[in-house]
Design goal:
The protein has 388 residues and is of the alpha+beta class. The chain has helices at residues 12-23, 36-41, 50-58, 63-68, 88-92, 101-114, 234-244, 247-250, 296-315, 320-347, 355-371, 373-384, and strands at residues 2-8, 28-31, 47-48, 70-72, 74-79, 82-87, 96-98, 119-120, 124-129, 136-141, 144-155, 173-188, 198-200, 207-213, 216-223, 258-272, 275-276, 279-281, 287-288. Strands 1, 2, 8, 9, 10, 11, 17 and 18 form an eight-stranded mixed β-sheet that branches. The structure holds arabino-flavin-adenine dinucleotide and P-hydroxybenzoic acid (PHB).
Length: 388
């Protein structure tokens, strides 16, 4: 088999890249390790930056998103049992859209199907060969080994994928910060606690009240990352969540059975460069952020924006953009990594001797945020999304 571009990973970044390149007349093949059902069963991001929304609309993927997504013109921060609103529209004239990553991925699969796109599922043992020269990929499926010859390989295969590991250790440079806690997430068929998201700092730990629609709520509480999720009954989760949210919200919120419950670790991670010869990295394959700033999926989309432009230019005879891809993508990645680290550091309870002092510093900064238009503008610019 031969294709101009072979994409490893059929998550949001792989599917979106494939779709945009197809629209530019380039042929791609997507190799996905899991089944489509497995990919679509993942519950992940919930907030789309305005840049992501614009790019999805431009790619013809906005119909259901615009019908079922919820525009949020602000968000709430809370500490010491009270909250305040950061008004994105008043501060920067832009807003975010609440529309689950699962839905974005489903829309992408529908678009690839309609365009006759090639997405091969259950592709096992994917291996990248000769990325320095004329690359080819091998993978196993239905008991035999297959080969795809291509011009370019794009690793959209997430943090645990094969592509980053293909870059030689003397070339790849990475930095990582692992946070001393995780997020316990619950999905429930209940009315959201508030019409917009609430990020709550509390001495017992962070809490986030989010949603997918007016009858599907998404909540998170900071929890020990090694906690077995079975330790958390639904009642224990709701009780802890209500302790951490402002009382006026906790007293009126609807609770109910969890339909999904999981604990995710939190880390900041960046691998450089995001291109090595004929192999390029996109999304979680190259970088991971703690979900506090809702940047993970949105960074994957901006990588797709830069790389799709670069590959289209390459096939038009201009190698400037592809030569500049890694630096251009990383410039935006690092700013999002910083914001996600800052917001995580502000809102979570960190263990250690200076825990009380750290809590006081966090409460002072949140108090400053509440009364400073300049501070709120900085938060809004980063949360809604820095320009591409
Ligand atoms: P993905 O990980 O989504 O997709 C990679 C794909 O590659 C997967 O389908 C995988 O099966 C496949 N793959 C892996 N190895 C392969 C191989 N060797 N061969 C073939 N295929 C392979 N972001 C937010 O903004 N907000 C959130 O609340 C949030 N919550 C998250 C919760 C969890 C548990 C996780 C893990 C991530 C969360 N994220 C969140 C981040 C997440 O949304 C990612 O940023 C987003 O999925 C990135 O998309 P991709 O880069 O496409 O990677
Ligand atoms: C979510 O709804 O899953 C969500 C929203 C905002 C975040 C993280 C997760 O910062």
């Amino acid at each position: 088999m031969r294709s101009q571009i072979c994409i490893i990973g059929g998550g949001p970044s792989g599917l979106l890249l494939s779709h945009i390149l197809h629209q530019a007349g380039l042929d791609t093949i997507v190799l996905e390790r899991q089944s489509r059902d497995h990919v679509l069963s993942r519950i992940r991001a919930g907030v789309l930056e305005d840049g992501t929304v614009a790019l999805l609309r431009q790619a013809g993927l906005g119909a259901r998103m615009d019908r079922e997504g919820f525009a949020h013109s602000g968000t709430y921060l809370a500490a010491r049992n009270r909250g305040f609103r950061v008004d994105f529209i008043d501060l920067i004239g832009r807003e975010v859209l609440v529309y689950g990553q699962t839905e974005v991925t489903a829309d992408l699969y529908a678009a690839r199907d309609a365009a006759g796109g090639i997405v091969i599922h259950n592709a096992a043992d994917v291996a990248i060969h000769d990325a320095r020269g004329t690359p080819y990929i091998t993978y196993a499926k239905d008991g035999s080994t297959h080969r795809v010859d291509c011009d370019w390989v794009v690793g959209c295969d997430g943090f645990h994928g094969v592509s980053r590991r293909t870059i030689p250790p003397d070339v790849l440079r990475s930095v990582e910060k692992v946070y001393p806690f995780g997020w316990l997430g619950v999905l429930s068929r209940t009315a959201p606690a508030n019409h917009e998201l609430i990020y709550a700092n509390h001495e017992r730990g962070f809490a986030l009240a989010s949603m997918r629609n007016d009858r599907l709520s998404r909540y998170y509480i900071q929890a020990p990352v090694d906690d077995p999720v079975e330790r958390w009954s639904d009642d224990a989760f709701w009780d802890e969540l209500r302790r951490r949210l402002p009382a006026d919200v906790a007293e009126t919120m609807e609770t109910g059975p969890s339909i999904e419950k999981s604990i995710a670790p939190l880390r900041s991670f960046v691998a450089e460069p995001m291109r090595w010869n004929r192999l390029c990295l996109v999304g979680d394959a190259a970088h991971i952020v703690p979900p506090t700033g809702a940047k993970g999926l949105n960074l994957a989309v901006s990588d797709v924006h830069y790389l799709s432009q670069a590959l289209i230019a390459h096939y038009a005879g201009d190698d400037g953009p592809i030569d500049g891809y890694s630096d251009r993508a990383l410039a935006r990645v690092w700013k999002a990594v910083r914001f996600s680290w800052w917001f995580t550091s502000l809102m979570h309870r960190f263990p250690g001797d200076s825990a009380l002092f750290d809590q006081k510093m966090q409460e002072a900064e949140i108090d400053y945020l509440e009364h400073s238009r300049a501070a709120q503008t900085a938060l809004a610019e980063n949360y809604v999304g820095l320009p591409y």
